[in-house]
Amino acid sequence: MRTQVGIIGAGPAGLLLSHLLHLRGIESVVLERRSREYVERRVRAGVLEQGTVDTLVEAGVGERMKREGLPHHGIELRYGGAGHRIAFERLVPGRAITVYGQQEVVKDLIAARLAAGGDVRFEVDDVAVHDIDTDRPYLTFGGERLDCDVIAGCDGFHGVSRPSIPEGVLTEYQRDYPFAWLGILAKVKPSSEELIYSRTERGFALHSMRTPEISRFYLQVAPDEDLAAWPDERIWAELRARLETVPGFTLATGEIVERGITPMRGFVAEPMQYGRLFLAGDAAHIVPPTGAKGLNLAVADVRVLTEALARLFADGSTEALDGYSTACLPRVWRAQHFSWWMTTLLHTFESDDAYARRLQTSYLDYVTSSDAAGTTLAENYVGLPYQEET
Ligand code: FAD
Ligand code: DHB
């Protein structure tokens, strides 16, 4: 079997790459370890940058998102007994975010690929990459062989592609945080129109949403936290304690339909390529979720990779592909910094003394009172322009 681009992983990165390549007349095969049901139900990110929304709309996969997604023009930072709005419409006019679940993006992309006759294979075991240092790389899986011109490693942080790169090629940068996020999805109308990022002495909490009937919440918890130690009543009590911190705000509660714990880590592998293997999305880098950047960064990588592959298949030129990692890394590191900054601004670090806590408050006061500082947050949050637009 043969294709032009062999793609490992049917997450947002792999599926969007396959779709964008198809629009350019380039063939691909997507190999995914999990079932279709599993990837369509996996609850993860929910905040789409303006550029992500525009990318999906321009690619013809934004219809349902435009109907069902929730455009937001601001977020609230809640601390010290008051809420402070970061007003995107004033600070970054014309740019906003859209709240639309990652699994909905995945569903829309799978439907588009299958409708166009795309080859997306689920429950594929034992994918392995071979001969990536030649022009004839290939993939093996379940006794089959797929010859390719290029392989795209879109298989997330725990995938097989990054570890297939010979030792000594990659430099890995990593920061682990001394806490995790407990995330839940609940059948309850959101108690706020906009997202609330709440910093309290008990730890951080985030109120987000998915639809007018479904809310999403996160709680800062210990890094080794056991989900079994968090029965529903404890989750709601802790969310109340961390969100009902301003006069007149009450949190509505409801049935919890999904729950999970996510470790908090920043990680970058450089370069994001070796020979004919190109890493995109979480396979190359992850961020702590506070800045809502993970999914958006995967989209930015895939845009760059699509352009570079279009050049290769148009005239055999490898110049853009050779520059793939160099083109992606400035945005990757901007997102690393922003995610680290938002995390540091809003979480409780056990190692913090009273001095560090005062610094945190001072910075929050600055971000919420100065337009210059507020714009720094706003322009990163809604997403900086893509490199090709600057
Ligand atoms: P993924 O979505 O991880 O997709 C990779 C795909 O590859 C998966 O479908 C996987 O099953 C498949 N795969 C892996 N190994 C193999 C293999 N060997 N063979 C074949 N297929 C394979 N970001 C936020 O902004 N906010 C959040 O709240 C948030 N929560 C998160 C919670 C969790 C538990 C995780 C893991 C991530 C979260 N993220 C969040 C990050 C965001 O979801 C990711 O950045 C985004 O999913 C990246 O997309 P991707 O396609 O690169 O990787
Ligand atoms: C969501 C996740 C985030 O990491 C974030 O910063 C904001 C919202 C969400 O899942 O809705």
From TrEMBL:
Source species: Microbispora bryophytorum
Gene Ontology molecular-function annotations: 4-hydroxybenzoate 3-monooxygenase activity; FAD binding
Coiled coil: none
Record InterPro entries: FAD-bd (IPR002938), FAD/NAD-bd_sf (IPR036188), HB_mOase (IPR012733), RIFMO-like (IPR050641)
Keywords on record: FAD, Flavoprotein, Monooxygenase, Oxidoreductase
NCBIfam families: pbenz_hydroxyl, PRK08243.1
Any Pfam family the entry gives: FAD_binding_3
Flavoprotein listed as a keyword: yes
Protein name according to UniProt: 4-hydroxybenzoate 3-monooxygenase
PANTHER family per UniProt: P-HYDROXYBENZOATE HYDROXYLASE, TRK SYSTEM POTASSIUM UPTAKE PROTEIN
GO biological process, one term: benzoate catabolic process
Domain FAD-binding: 2-338
